Amino acid sequence: MSTVVGLLQEIPYQELLIQTLNGIVTGMILALIASGLTLIFGIMDVVNFAHGELFMFGAYMGVVVISATGSFWLALLLATLIVALIGAALQITTLRPLLGRDPLTTILATFGISLVMQNYALWQFGPVARKIPEPFSGQFTLFYLEYPWYRVLIAVLSAAIIGAFYLFLKYGTYGIWIRATTQDRVMAEAMGIPVSWVHTAVFGIGAGMAAASGVLFGPLVGVNHAMGLDWVLKAFIVVVVGGMGNLGGSIAASIFISLLEAYASIWVSPAQAVIVSFVVLILTLLFRPTGLFATPK
Amino acid sequence: MSKRSATVYWTGFSIILALLILAPLVLTEFWRRFLTEILIWGLLAMSSDILIGYTGMVSFGHSAFFGLGMYGAAAALLMVRPPNLWLAILYGLVGSAGIALFVAYFSTRLRDIYFAITTLIFSQIFYVIIFTWTEVTGGENGLTFRRPALEIPGLFSVPFSSETLHWFVLAVVTASYLILRRITQSPFGMVLQSIRENEARTRAIGYAVERYKMVAVMLSGLFAGLAGVLYALQNRFAAPDFVYFLVSGETVIFNVMGGIGTLVGPIVGAGFFLLLREAFSRFFTEYYLIPVGVIFIAMVIFMPQGLLGFMRRWLNQ
Amino acid sequence: MTGDATPMQPLVAVEDVHTYYGKSHILHGVSLHVDRGEVVGLLGRNGVGKSTTLKTIMGLVHPHRGKVLFAGKPITSLPAHKLARLGIGYVPEDRRIFRLLTVMENLRTGLDRHGMTEARKQGLLEKAFAYFPVLAERRNQAGGTLSGGEQQMLAIARAMMLEPKIILLDEPTEGLMPRMVSQIRQIIDVLHREGVAILLVEQNVPLTLEASQRVYIMEKGAVRHHCPASALKVGDPLIQQYLGV
Lengths: 297, 317, 245
Hints:
The complex is a heterotrimer of chains A (about 300), B (about 325) and C (about 240). Chain A is mainly alpha-helical and about 300 residues long. Chain A contains 13 helices and two strands; from the N terminus they run αααααββαααααααα. In chain A, a hairpin with a 2-residue loop joins strand 1 and strand 2. In chain C, helix 3 (about 105-110) packs parallel to helix 6. At the A-B interface, helix 5, helix 10 and helix 13 of A face helix 5, helix 11 and helix 13 of B.
């Protein structure tokens, strides 16, 4: 009996609580990034390797707008819009010509784009990390802890953006177009839906969502040209674990994996905590290759 | 192959081989090493072509095979005294084969994109392990070691010079090329190509597709590991950077630029890419990837059959 | 409006069209036409290219040679979504309704167009529900939960939401019970009375001969015979020749 009590006392409750919150926050950001990725894959079978770079560009646009205007919110808005447009432009110039070809080509093209974008950012902004200042500081108390308000804001805003998008998909006019195109591209076309523009729009939306994540996440870490790489890998893991093209699944997977990683970081270094996501991936591939959270059709 | 085209082919082959043999005698040190590097990356790209070009499986995992070959060789050269060339090769091949087996087991059940992403993630797993397991792998700084001598035990032992190393690499790469060529033209190779064309049909005919895929991955991993060993020999260090998935990405770039499914194409692609990098580095310093990347994207869109495919078409006209 | 067909011009004209799927030469110079308000039947065995002909007209595949004209204007290289807006409705083999969308949402894919007022949309919806009461009942159900016959009705209703001048119907009665088959027959008549032209691909010969004014018979990727529907009877040796098992 006393050993059980002893064990219970060993559990670092404070740590667990903090990490739960951290896990949820990171999970929401990851969900925002992964949503765009899974959407793009679901509708046009494109594996967007450049997604992490769109995230990175968003963060840099945020830096630029804040240094010009000082307003975080303006930065969030403008970065999202600008990168959405950049995404749409990229889709029109490099992905449309590849429609109908081997899916390998889109992986390659987006990989090439990611290389160009990374180096362009390095060229323009240099290797030193920039900072996005938090729009407000201050912490709130939960039990015996202090937890920064800003992080809570990130989670709430990410959830709001995803929620708004979900509503748009379900009830908006163009939402129906997007859903119809995802299910049956050919028939959507035959119903008068301009499918190639829907593809462009979706790519732009996905890019915008990635950019928003970048600005939101910016104050937590430094903004530098390589920040996209880790996130894109995690996002891919999330997309596979959640089920390709499954929006709800990728959100659930994002939170699940982020929580596990956050807990793991209590005991191991963050660099090693990422192994958790790899393990989850391997287990998913072994036992439920269509995705842990995929709804059986 | 018809008698006529066979003679043309082997003549061309001999000429190029002769040029490559003579090259180190006329080139400066810098270009000599450059050429050797092209051969090594070419071997890596060739191994990748087995999967991409012949079996139709896009893999981003080659950095893992390459890296393990490199570290395997490093292990042999650091742990066994005196440093032995053949042991290094053996360790490297065993290392990469082991990884290839692991990757093969998991990924050959997956199709296309899932396979690509999974190999990417696996290569990152190895990167993280190598990067963080500092006691064994030297972590971020990697490992350095001395180059072993070229020796046949009991017969002779002579340290490598820049030229002899080049010839050694050339011999290994040429032998690999010939072996791979033989394999791709064998019945086994035909089945691989049939899998690329139409996997379902190949399965329906009765072939155990998964097994063929696994062998293809193992084969690919072996030669990629060999490339890693050669790289370790040439540069005398092993670093985690080479296990990062970008190396896999670059390998795939070589494949596409050169022409997939041609075995020779990837070597040409490697050469082309490295030359471009050299050229653009002069003007753009470390941002050479911007113009090179743009060229790559343009090639994916407009010249998907790669340089070799393009030349073939051009010559046929 | 992109110009109504003059009385002499057919609504849809297919002229010497050659269509390929990859390397397979499917259509070897198909020519046919449909006049305004006509019901035209397209008969032939499986695999002769009937569906491909419809897909070519709809712009879902593009021919290597030959022309497709709509109200006299060439539409051969236009994408399908433009043709849907011009007034061509398509009801494919196996229906292809959007399974995860509700019945309402399926209909809305055709309704949400330029220049459609809420009133007009409501009107069209009510018409669809009047013709297909079962769709009204199931309006919030996902398309995938409907029975085969109901899905067929939804597919037709969905095409009707485009207010098309011609509907391309690909084997609408396939796999349906006799009661549903006669319902389809009635719909064809109703559409005909409203002035909508129909190009009907069918295996059901008696229904096709009854419902159409003219028929074409295809074999091996080309039109082999063409006559008014009244000139053919079910037992005709020609039918036996081109369609017999």
